[in-house]
Design brief:
Structural class of chain B: alpha+beta
CATH superfamily of the largest domain in chain B: Rod shape-determining protein MreC, domain 1
Number of strands of chain B: 12
Shape of chain A: globular
Largest sheet of chain B: 6 strands, antiparallel, barrel
Order of helices and strands of chain B: HHHHEEEEEEEEEEEE
CATH class of the largest domain in chain B: Mainly Beta
Distance between the termini of chain A: 18 Å
Number of strands of chain A: 0
Helix content of chain B: 25-40%
Oligomer: heterodimer
Largest interface: A-B, 46 and 47 residues
CATH topology of the largest domain in chain B: Thrombin, subunit H
Number of domains of chain B: 2
Helix content of chain A: 55-70%
Number of helices of chain B: 4
Shape of chain B: globular
Largest sheet of chain A: none
Chain lengths: ~180, ~280
């Protein structure tokens, strides 16, 4: 059982993926949400990348999370499969110079959400899956920003605990007495 | 060229980008062309769908509680309205059953087995929605094991809301009728004009997710409030499913053709339960 501990983060992301879809369903009708995006899962992944910035295996976790979420939400590969590893790689690089404080990580996670939104917009328009105007992208930025800020505040402590206690594919027993 | 080939980083980036475009192109093509997804994709979807059902259960209870309180507050008004409709409903029901019997007799007289209006229904719950508001994709808890197939029409709240775009064993994806996906199949529809003739066309999306009745020949004869139904043409959905009503008739941006805006009849904003329509005629 202890050997499965190194996969705790992957399991937590799996639950977050399911929760992301369910929350999108119930939050969608709310005022202001219709033009925004629910980035609960990417926020989790980005926070993990910022907290556990020296673990290169987190990039593979981001890649795997991207594939599973793309297949489940959209039925095509290339949306989160590309954007999540890229943004996590960037955040891991940035994390080396950032203070290990909540606000610093929150600000860079919010910047990450803007990048994700912009990439999704570009991807959908290029592949023809959705025709979204630039105005709609800009209109959706503020609600996405606000919802993302709420999700960061609510879930930061969970991801902080998980990333420190259960880093992906790292046997913690070797470092514990 | 030699310099480029010696630069391993640049070469790797190029290979990754090419591989990426291949995967994206391949997966988009697979989604549009295949009737069933790949086995691995289907398995992955069903595993996540099981997780989504587990997570959805407590959220559904909480959300249902809020809805119940809201419904309780509207009970009196709703009750008064329903009372006024009860006698009308009984009358419609009696007429409906006599018409149904007559229809059956006429069909047997003509030796018709199944027509475009015949269909079966599968009820399902929505367990997930795409995280952004641009793609309009829902995930439901029924799949091919319940007889659901790609391109079947999906209804909620009394009208059509979309169609199945991917059917896995225990779950399926529904693309809403408001989708701006260029490769999406459109519903062939018809409406009765003021002169009694049928006007045929297709449902498309214009601007900010507004439905429009396009490719109609005689659109000027459609009055505001005219009901629009599926025509059964196109081979995917049966005839007679309500799509919406005519909202307004205007001209397109070039002023060359008429544009009929449609008020959707289905519950597009908050569809928690849906009905998948299985057309009887192949």
């Amino acid at each position: 059982m202890s050997s499965l501990k190194k996969y705790t983060l992957a399991f937590a992301l799996f639950i977050t993926l399911a929760l992301n879809g369910s929350l999108s369903l119930y939050l969608h009708p709310l005022y202001g949400f219709s033009s925004g995006a629910n980035l609960l899962l990417p926020i989790g992944m980005m926070l993990v990348a910022l907290i556990d910035d020296t673990n290169q295996k987190e990039l593979w976790l981001a890649f795997g999370t991207g594939i599973v979420s793309d297949v489940f939400f959209f039925g095509i590969i290339g949306i989160y499969t590309v954007s999540l590893p890229c943004v996590c790689w960037f955040l891991q690089k940035v994390a080396r110079f950032l203070p290990e404080l909540f606000w610093a990580r929150a600000v860079f996670t919010l910047i990450g959400t803007v990048f994700l939104n912009a990439y999704n917009w570009l991807f959908f328009n290029l592949t023809g899956i959705a025709k979204v105007s630039l105005g709609m992208l800009l209109k959706g930025l503020l609600p996405t920003f606000l919802w993302s800020a709420a999700f960061i505040i609510l879930t930061y402590w969970i991801w902080n605990w998980l990333a420190i206690e259960f880093p992906f594919m790292v046997k913690q027993e070797n470092y514990r007495s | 060229m030699k310099k480029f080939l010696q630069n391993k980083k640049l070469l790797s980036v190029c290979i990754v980008v090419i591989a990426l475009f291949t995967v994206i192109g391949g997966s988009v093509s697979l989604r549009n062309k295949r009737n069933t997804p790949l086995v691995i994709q289907s398995l992955g979807n069903d595993i996540v769908a099981v997780g989504a059902r587990v997570v959805d259960f407590p959220i559904g209870i909480i959300s249902g509680g809020f809805n119940n309180v809201n419904e309780l507050l509207n009970t009196q008004n709703e009750n008064n309205y329903l009372k006024s409709r009860v006698s009308e409903l009984e009358q419609t029901k009696a007429r409906n059953s006599s018409l149904e019997a007559e229809n059956k007799q006429l069909k047997s007289a003509l030796k018709l087995k199944k027509t475009l209006t015949d269909f079966d229904q599968v009820n399902a719950s929505v367990i997930s929605r795409s995280p952004d508001s641009w793609t309009d994709i829902l995930v439901i808890n029924k799949g091919t094991t319940s007889g659901i197939r790609k391109n079947m029409a999906v209804m909620s709240g009394g009208g059509i809301i979309g169609r199945i775009v991917e059917a896995d064993a225990a779950s399926a994806k529904v693309e809403l009728i408001t989708t701006t996906d260029k490769s999406a199949n459109r519903f062939a529809v018809e409406a009765q004009a003021t002169n009694g003739k049928k006007v045929h066309g297709i449902i498309t999306v214009i601007g900010d997710k507004t439905l429009a009745f396009t490719q109609a020949v005689d659109s000027k004869k459609l009055k505001q409030g005219t009901r629009i139904y599926t025509s059964g043409m196109g081979g995917n959905s049966p005839k007679g499913l309500l799509v919406g009503t005519v909202a307004a008739t205007t001209h397109d941006s070039f002023g060359l053709s008429d544009l009929i805006k449609v008020n959707p009849a289905g519950e597009l904003n908050d569809p928690t339960t849906v009905t998948v329509i299985k057309r009887a005629v192949d």
